[in-house]
Every structure is written in C-alpha cells, then in structure tokens.
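Continuing the series of single-chain predictions for the mutant panel. This is the parent chain; the variants come on the following pages.
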Amino acid sequence: MKHSKGYIRHLNRICTGLLLIFIVSSSALAQTTEPIRVAVTQPGMIPIVRYIGSSGVEIIEAGESADDSTISTVSGCDLIIFGYSELIESEQDFAQSVPDLASVDWPDYERHGAQLITLPMYVIDPSGFWLGFENAKAIAAAVAEALMIQGLDVEQVTARLAQFSNEIDSLSESSHQVFVKIGRERSRWVAMTPEAAYIIENMGLEIGGDIYLPGVSGSLSGFPAFPDIDDIEMKLRSGEYIAVVCPLEIKEIAAELSDYFTQNTGAQVCYVRTSIVADDNSITSQAYLNAGILLATAMQATVREKAGAPIGVHLLYSLAIFALLMYAVLLNKRLYYVGPPVVRRSEPKGKKKKK
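Parent structure:
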C-alpha cells in the first residue's frame, strides 16, 4: 500500500513537471506582442482574469445571451473562460457553439482546489462560487496556466499569480482577526443565497442557516412555509444567529422576507455586494467593504445584547461602528485604483505598433 502511494506521488510529480515543460515551451513559441483576446462568461470573474493577464489580455464580456452576434464575437477570441458550463445553461450554448475554442472551465478550477459551497436548501448551485477566497485563487491559477499556454510571459504571469494569492491570503487573515478582536469569531449567520454564504465563510464565520429563494425572483408570498424557517426565526430572536446576510443586488426582491425577519425577531438584515464592478481591477476592495458591513452588524448585535448597559457603552459601540464603516468606505475608494503589476512589452525591432 505504501509502495502504491509512493508510486502515485511520483507519477503526479512527473505529470506536473511535464505540464510545466509544455507550458514553458508553448509560451516560448507562441509569445506575441498582440493582446490575447479572452471571452469571459461571468462578469464576476473578469477582475481575476484582468489581474492575472494585465495588459496582455483583451477581455470580451460574453454575457448570458448566446445570440448570433455574441457567438460571432466570441469565436474570434483566443480563449473562453467559463464559470461552470455543465450547470449554467447560458454557458452550455456557448460551449456548443465554439467547441474548438481553447477554454477554462470548472474541472480546471476544481483541480486547483475550488469547491462549491454546500447548503441544505441549495443542493448543487454554482452561483457566485468565484466570490469564495479559495475559489478565487483556484480560478487565478487555472487562468494563469491557460494564458501562459496562449503565449503570455511565464515569469510575469507567475509573479502576478503569486501576488494575487498573497493578497487573498492576507485579506482572509485580516478579515477574520477583526472578528476575533470583538469576540465574534464563532458567530453564526443566516445566508439568503450561496453568494452571501461565500462572503460569510470568507470571514472565517459559520453559516447557521440558509433560505432558498427560487430563482431569486418572483413573489415570496408563502415564505413562512419554507422548511426550518421557524427554527431560523427562533435562533435569530435568541441571538444564536447574529443576522441575515442578503446580497444588495436582490434587496428589493427579498424585501418581504427581510421585513418578516426584522419585525419578528429584532435581528438585522445586512446587505453585501456580490456583483463585482468590471472596471475594478481588485476584488479586495469589495471584500474589505463586505467585511466592514458584517463587522458593523456583529457589533450592533452586541449592542442589542447589552441593552441594559450604561449609556457610555452604547455610545462607545456606536462610535466604533461609525469609524469601521468610514474605514471600509475609504478603503474601498483607495483600493479601487489599485491594480495588478503592468506587463511592459518591448516591440521587436523593425515592427511598428498597430494604431
């Protein structure tokens, strides 16, 4: 058995070595001064692709509609990056329309450690999986491999990938530590969607319950009949669950349910950003903003629990919450302009840059 495991590890090292040799040799042969045209089907993944590819890529947002015009544009790209084409219907249309186009897809991310979050109310749902810190790192690694094969400089792509991973690790640790400092590192939260669940887990916090919003659209009348809603309501009222986390993007759709919990439990519903602005080069800005929102919510829950405390305690917590929110907003604005290191390419002698 030991011999067998040793053989498998040896085989894995050989396969990894061969892959690296293939990537380096392919990159050396294919290096070009023209940007690599990359189609991305999920807008939330664009900042990751832009970070790793920098100025060496031209990103085409494929969107959700695989109409003739979009397919024609995508077919002219060098690479297409899917989210999870096996489960996302709109991506299946693209996959069938451009079967010969080089692609990156869920199996590539999974190979680098990506995992879908498991929630009782959502059996298998790929929604927003790129929001998870570890998943973002896995996506970056898979995209880096594909871009090096397409011809981007191996050394520069590898450096950007390392920097990206370090930033995510630092963000994960610092986000969790602020909850440790206020004694809320073991707090439990309710997630309205898988996207909200990834944000909770990013902070090292626990998901106590989740609520199924079918298709995140339509009427929510009859929601008290959801399984476990009585249990969630009871635990929110008792303080066992801190609050409900809802994506800001569905605030209006979930308003009825949010009001129900607020009025019946006294617990808060906090709203986080789950859609990343495509022009923003850094996902860390959004992550810090969400961390500030959850932190402020946790501290307000603490104030609620200390309802009998002296007025000075309430004032102290209120000032702390205000300071944290201002810090999150200012940090978000500052990081908005922070991007990946720029790839500087020298033009071959005798070749003029195209206008």
